[in-house]
Amino acid sequence: MTFHNLMKQSVEVDKKSFLDCINARRPIGITIDGEIVTGKAGDLPPQPYLFVGTPRSLTGGATVEATPLAKILGESYEVRDEGEKITIYAGRAWQELLAANAPFATYQDTTADGIVEFSDEALENLIWYSCEFGINHRDVAEHLEERMDGRIVCIENERPYSFTGSAFIDDLEAARCIAFDFIRSVLSRKIEEGTIDPDDLSKEEEEALNFFGLRD
Questions:
Q1: Around 27, how many Cα atoms within 13 Å sit in the side-chain half-sphere?
Q2: What is the pLDDT of residue 124?
Q3: Checking DSSP bridges between strand 85-89 and strand 36-38, what pairing results, if any?
Q4: Nearest to 10 by CA among 108, 155, 162, 152
Q5: How far, in Å, CA of 157 to CA of 163, rounded?
Q6: How confident is the model at residue 159 (pLDDT cuts 50, 70, 90)?
Q7: Burial class of residue 118 (count of CB atoms within 10 Å of its CB; 0-12, 13-18, 19+)
């Protein structure tokens, strides 16, 4: 999977398209590739986003204060005029990035909470069974990150270390098969090593081994 660490990169968008959306007060999504998509959050196509919402007003009005271009997307973003392009830096916008990508990401990962769920029901169902033997979201996610195509849009800071990211797997059907095979192989190894005793299982553990095809 490809990592986009927004602490170390900015995103360029077309200046005219960006300013047109601001002047029209349109709700938009800005993708990690710099594409501007018009629409409210619930209507946007699923893909990684840098920003989702309605930019503030450059000119203001009777009830709306004018906002400098640098903060037109909010206090956590830095927006710069680079001639024909607008450059957006989102290295401090971790809360906004999580919210923007929550409806679309396969999973989200933060320093505080880690990975707590997969949005895909089939992947989440695998964890429901595998957790009986200590195989969790993190184990499966790291395995998928090494083997699947996709993207992780993140803010990763080294000192002090912190991480906030949203992961997008391209082929969920393949991911389900790879995750299933990974969990099954780990459980098989534990049985062979004697870490799991097939003759001394709780009801939940029996169900889990049955699910992964490891009970006669």
A1: 9
A2: 97
A3: unpaired
A4: 155
A5: 6
A6: confident
A7: buried
Nearest Cα neighbor of 28 from 6, 3, 53, 8 is 53
Other CB atoms within a 10 A radius of the CB of residue 42 amount to 6
Tokens representing 152 are 């992780």
d(CA 29, CA 80): 18
Q: What is the pLDDT of residues 82-117, one digit of tens each?
A: 999 999 999 999 999 999 999 999 999 999 999 999
Angstrom distance (rounded) from CA 25 to CA 171: 35
Residue 76 pairs with which residues in a beta bridge?
none
Q: What does the DSSP 8-state code read for residue 114?
A: B
Task: Give the pairing of strands 150-158 and 2-5.
Answer: parallel
Closest CA to 1 of 166, 181, 186: 166
- In this structure, which amino acid lies at residue 198? P
φ, ψ (nearest 5 deg) of residue 66:
-70, 145
Residues 38 and 32: beta-carbon distance below 8 Å: no
pTM: 0.91
Distance CA 101, CA 108 (A): 9
In whole angstroms, give the CA distance from residue 165 to residue 121: 20
CA distance 216 to 158: 48
State pLDDT tens for residues 170-196: 999 999 999 999 999 999 999 999 899
How far is it, in rounded angstroms, from Cα 155 to Cα 166?
10
